[in-house]
């Protein structure tokens, strides 16, 4: 079996479910329960295994969509436990003063040694508050970008970008941009021959990082 | 308050969560917990209130993503209860012999008098099995289309389409196409002035029904 990359998805009430569900739908194809070998032109070089963290084991109530069942609490993290990939979604629950403190602490503890740190939409604001974006280029939901830039001038916010890569840190624009970023990330991990099998199953049109019309809509340029 | 349209989302194990989560993320903005009045140029003409049906009240385990908490059982439906909108997602759980019989029965009972019937991906196969597509034009996941066409020659399957509208029935291609269809549906319901507020928040690039590259990939033309 290929090496397993552990993925921690941060859940909290009033998360935008699509922010993480778009990406994990793609990643699920290379998970332990993913596609059988015969689907692949070559075996994927990695397998991704996801854990869903929340403050308690109670259902999480997102902005839209059904309640979600977490698989771990932030508190359950062992002192020496390190996840390979951290995925932080956005939504109303990512706003300052709203996000539960354990989410920020989790990112603060995990991000420095994670192989990859990913955010979707205003999830970037949580990364910024956890100090994970200082001195880095990043993007976020365009409707919120001006406000977040004001609060976090230590981050190089890019207004025109579907997603931004800086080192091991991948941040995307609003909601649906997370799926485009996740596809590029999957391609980065396992190569385009394998990732295109996934893309053709979920019928995802490929977009480029620069293919972004929303910076202009919100007069950010 | 504007008139409320009741939406029934059909859940089952091995559903593709993104199939319904993409659409309900959009619909959530015009839900009772949606955006406050000041966000809208004019008040939306409808409000959508979603119920999530499953065979039991136990968590539903989708193909990818966290387990989901249903809000109703199919069995709980009252004899005179009619939903305005039925949304049927796809995934491995929609395959013949896999879908729980109560899902098929629910669609069979609700579709004839629903204002709108929507499916995403192979959710169309469930609609077909429930007799809701006979004599209608429809589409489905392109990877599965040839097989499903063989099983359901009574349906006018369209190979090149991001989504298809026939009367009150909206069917989309695979996974991500459901979000594009949901946007067009939202626009149809509440007009483009209101729907574009939603689109700009979730940063959804607008696609047309014909903008489909996957029919060609799967040699369906």
From TrEMBL, chains A, B:
This is DJ-1/PfpI domain-containing protein. Residues 48-187 form the DJ-1/PfpI domain. SUPFAM superfamilies: Class I glutamine amidotransferase-like.
